[in-house]
Amino acid sequence: MNKLKNLTIGFALLALILMLLTITFAGYRTNAYADYDTSSSTNESNKNSLEISEEEVVNRGIYTALSIAINGGNGNVWTTVKNDVTIFPATVIVIVELYSSDTYQESFLNMNLVAREYIADLNMGQTITATASTGGQTKYWNGRAYYKVDNNAWKDIVTGTCKIGPNGEYLGII
Predict the structure, then answer these.
(1) Of these four, 35, 44, 76, 77, which has the most CB atoms within 10 Å of its CB?
(2) What is the C-alpha R_g of the chain?
(3) Cβ contact 105:111 at 8 Å
């Protein structure tokens, strides 16, 4: 009976500690990605063209980590964003974009937007993908996503530029 009482007290203390940590770190996020600059006209036009409804959202999640990758095959190129982890429920708005260029460009800003996808809430473990045809040509490609967790600032992640052949095969950087 004493063990059961000690176990119950231990679980109660653990629950109390978790609750205090949740309260302490609510709204606190660490992420290695740069903040999304909502002041630029390009970003504003991108958001407006998708008609994103930004209702009042309450911060619920403590931490969210997204990853991005670019791949190709069968004459296509695609960039995929995955919600790797979200601690506590959160609304994760994601816009994923795929850019291409005939010549090497260090940044997607100098490339052509060829595909865009949007999801109002990317749940943990889910992915979203933007796909485009290579058009039978070797080109340079870059994947980008910008996202917003609950009512926090927009952030973005990019794949970097890579060279992909006409069948979707990876040909390196230069």
Answers:
(1) 77
(2) 21
(3) yes
What tokens appear for 15 in the block? 């629950």
Give the pLDDT confidence of 110-162 residue by residue, as tens digits: 999 999 999 999 999 999 999 999 999 999 999 999 999 999 999 999 999 99
- The torsion defined by the Cα of 22, 24, 29 and 126, in degrees rounded to 10, comes to 10
Q: Please give the pLDDT value at position 39.
A: 31
Q: Taking a C-beta distance cutoff of 8 angstroms, is the pair 131, 115 a contact?
A: yes
- Of the two residues 76 and 54, the one the predictor is more confident about is 76
Q: What string of DSSP letters covers 7-43?
A: HHHHHHHHHHHHHHHHHHHTT----SSPBP-TTSHHH
pTM: 0.67
